[in-house]
Amino acid sequence: MKKTIRDYDLNGKRVLIRCDFNVPMKDGVITDDYRIVSSLKTIQYAIDHHAKVILLSHLGRIKEESDKVKNDLEPVALRLSELLKKNVLFVKETRGEILNTVVSKMKNEDVILIQNTRYEDLDGKKESKNDPSLGAYWASLGDIYINDAFGTSHREHASNVGIASHIPSGIGFLVEKELENIEQVIANPERPFTVILGGAKVSDKIKVIENLVTKADYILIGGGMAYTFLKSKNYEIGKSLLDEESIEFCKKMLSQYPDKLILPVDHYVSDSIEGTGTLKSLEETSNNDMGLDIGDKTIHLFTDLIEKSHTVIWNGPVGLFENPSFQKGTKALCKAMKKVDGKTVVGGGDTASAVKKLGYQEVFTHISTGGGASLELLEGKQLPGINCISDK
């Protein structure tokens, strides 16, 4: 078990909290503050326990000088001030005398936000490659380090692994919740346990399938990746997405787990992604058809299994939800989650975007804030940003 923020006396301590404020922005305006809101509990806890709170986060990728303007964290500091109902002082540097002075003058319950940690990537990717001197410098600013950035926990950066290697560390409430709802749920699911996998390519989910096929009762396969499985069974898939290199893997999985891997039996097709859908059985599919959503019989098959489950984990939309013509399957699965007597967990990334866009975020027990990190947990991997945290 890893230490949490609750395991430390924070009174008067400088507490470095690595957050994930990598929020979408347009023209300097935040368009979705979900990730900011998700870290408020940890930040507020530190304030309530009289800490001096120092926040770090990245925003976007910094490859050249021009990237700094659009990925400036100042709008985040302003939004945080509104949400916390207190001033959050924004420090425009990632290191140096100004930052050192601001930190040295902090009083209990003060909150500062340091500039985008990836500004340090302009000079040899010091943040992203976990430069030892950078990690040591940031650690010198604090007494305790708390990782509340689940979305970057699958990366070994100076702002997580680098800092944690120098000072006492723990996880925040957001990371704790992510681990409870993904890692621990997989380890001890209430059954029946159903996994829904969608998205484009089988190759992106091979390790997930290998890890979960022995743990889950059912794996429902939709989205573009379903067509590689269907091709491996010699179905005509027309112009649908095909991951040629994964055909043999699909054959192997279907032969070993024929009752666990559940494939579509019909689908909505079109001749282009901008088109409208025509419902067809698999047998009716022509070589000019592109499968873009699961069909009505598949929806019934999938939702029946979902509604009978007590644990459901979902990673990857089952249709091209960006086009309203191909939202039906993803929307139907969202509705089915309402009837699940147990935990329903959504991996981050496109699935979380789909659920929010369609207005079903309140239906789920947990929506992950990290697509890549949640995917690696589903693969059974250890996350560097968690492993580096002090043990209880």
Task: Annotate the secondary structure layout.
Layout: E1 14-18, E2 25-26, E3 29-30, H1 34-38, H2 40-48, E4 52-56, H3 67-70, H4 74-84, E5 88-91, H5 97-104, E6 111-114, H6 132-140, E7 144-147, H7 158-164, E8 169-171, H8 173-181, H9 183-187, E9 193-197, H10 206-212, E10 218-221, H11 226-232, H12 247-256, E11 261-262, E12 266-270, E13 278-281, E14 290-294, H13 296-307, E15 311-315, H14 328-337, E16 343-346, H15 349-357, E17 366-367, H16 371-378, H17 384-387
Parallel strand pairs: 1-4, 1-7, 4-6, 5-6, 7-8, 9-10, 9-15, 10-11, 15-16, 16-17
Antiparallel strand pairs: 2-3, 12-13, 12-14
List keywords for this structure.
elongated, Rossmann fold, 17 helices, alpha/beta, 2 domains, 392 residues
